[in-house]
Every structure is written in C-alpha cells, then in structure tokens.
Design a protein that fits this description.
The protein is α/β, with parallel strands linked by helices and 262 residues long. The protein is 41% helix and 20% strand.
C-alpha cells in the first residue's frame, strides 16, 4: 500500500452558522483563535509538517465565506491544500473530498482539531498503514482523557470492554472505504447519542449496548456489515487527540494546553 496519504479537512458550517461561531461573532467556527492562531491554521500546519501526508483539500466553508474571509486564502496560500465547496453535511463533504482527490489512502480530519500535530498524524498513519481494512478510525481511551483533562466534557462511547473518545482522525484506505460516508450520512444526527446509532443495528444490539454487554468488536462487525466494507480502529494514547474546539469551553481548554497551563 502507498504509505503517503492525501488529506481531507472538513470545515463546513451548518446553514446560519453554528451556535459556537455565532457566540464568538465568527463567519466560520474554524477561524476561532486558539492561543494566537486559528484552529484551521493549526490543522493545516500539522498536516503540512507530517511526513505521512502530501497535500489534500479543504472542504468548506461555503464559497461566499471562503472568498470574503481573507484568512482562508492566507492559510492556504503557501500550502499544498486546495479549497473545494462543502456538501450537505460532513459525510457528503467527506465523499466529495474523496471524489475530488481520487487518491488512496486518504486521511480525514476536522478543521477545528486545533491540538493536532504532525507527530500525531504520523503516529496514526503508521498504525493504519498495512491493515487489512477499508476504513480505520482512531479512538482514545477515555481513562487517559479523564486523567489528563478532568474538567473536559467529551462524548464517550461505552462498551463492555472499554470506554473511548473519538479523535477526529479517519483513514479511508481504498475505494471500498467510500461506502462509509454513505452510511455516516444516516448516523450524523445521532453522533451525540451513541445508543441511537447502535439501535440501527437491531434491538438485540441496542439492548446489549444499553446493558453494558456490547463489545467494541461486535459493534464494528455490525457496522462493517451495514457498510459493506471492513471497518476497524486503532488506539491513540495521546489524550489531546480527543479535544476538538467546537465550544467556548473547549477553546479555553485548548488554549491552556497550548500555553502550558494545563
């Protein structure tokens, strides 16, 4: 497998903007200042510094915002990334990015992943390269997130063999992995309610999840069957990977981390 990844950075906004962007008076939430630099600038810099990534696309925001906010042009000016318009929702945007790149493996991340580093990207890419899977996502054990940042409120996936947080790092290793975004579009509305996502796998799966008897591996097997491709995960042992910046509290935490106060 080619070990050089093309990257897709999702930076779309909901119609009318997010509550977060409106609260801060921003045209786009990825422009939030985090310790003197926008979240998006930090993401692009991390990807550019990675040995595993060679360019890619920024999917979003909509063209009117992209053209009217000079910071977007400044961020991309000397980068190996190009802007493409977002679609209706993150999954459709991810698929648009994959179609635009037409290159595998591909790395998918979010424009608000302000704590992302080149080392974090390289570690993830090295772990997923060579796996006999189509889609791989990074999970961070909740225990290390809670220990490092006890004040942080995160969405936690609870399984009988562990509790995990997402990392906003996904790998689409081959064209079969494009089946993933098609199903994700059905799950997006439930991303903050894991039990609703599990419910789509049937009442038996839901009951096992609600009673704490569902393993992560069983859930992934069901997800793989639903997608028609092989889905897996790798563990990331850096608690910072679980912190994205989509609220004022998360922005404040990320700033403390970057300034060495946390």
């Amino acid at each position: 497998m080619n070990s050089v990844f093309a990257a897709i950075v999702l930076a779309g906004e909901r119609p009318g903007g997010s509550d977060f962007s409106r609260e801060l008076g921003l045209a786009s939430s990825v422009l939030v200042d985090v310790a003197g630099k926008s979240a998006l600038a930090r993401v692009i810099e991390a990807l550019e510094s990675s040995r595993s990534v060679n360019g890619g696309v920024l999917c979003g925001p909509v063209e009117s915002i992209f053209r009217e906010q000079p910071e977007f042009q400044e961020i991309l000016r000397d980068s190996s990334f190009q802007w493409i318009p977002p679609q209706a929702g993150p999954s459709a945007s991810a698929l648009a990015g994959l179609e635009s790149l037409n290159q595998f493996p591909a790395l998918l991340t979010a424009g608000d992943h302000a704590l992302l580093t080149g080392e974090m990207v390289d570690d993830f890419c090295s772990r997923v390269s060579g796996l006999d899977l189509d889609i791989v996502f990074g999970l961070v054990p909740y225990s290390i997130v809670r220990e490092a940042f006890p004040e942080s409120k995160r969405t936690v996936l609870k399984f009988s063999n562990g509790q995990f947080c997402g990392s906003n790092l996904f790998a689409i290793l081959n064209p079969r992995g494009k089946a993933g975004p098609a199903l994700w579009s059905q799950l997006e509305a439930d991303r903050k309610r894991p039990w609703r996502m599990v419910r789509r796998g049937g009442i038996g799966l839901l009951l096992r999840y609600l009673t704490g008897r569902l393993t992560l591996e069983s859930a992934l097997e069901t997800l793989s069957n639903a997608m028609g491709c092989r889905v897996g995960y790798v563990l990331i042992d850096n608690p910072r990977a679980a912190i994205d910046v989509d609220s004022v509290a998360d922005r404040d935490l990320a700033q403390k981390i970057l300034l060495g106060d946390c």
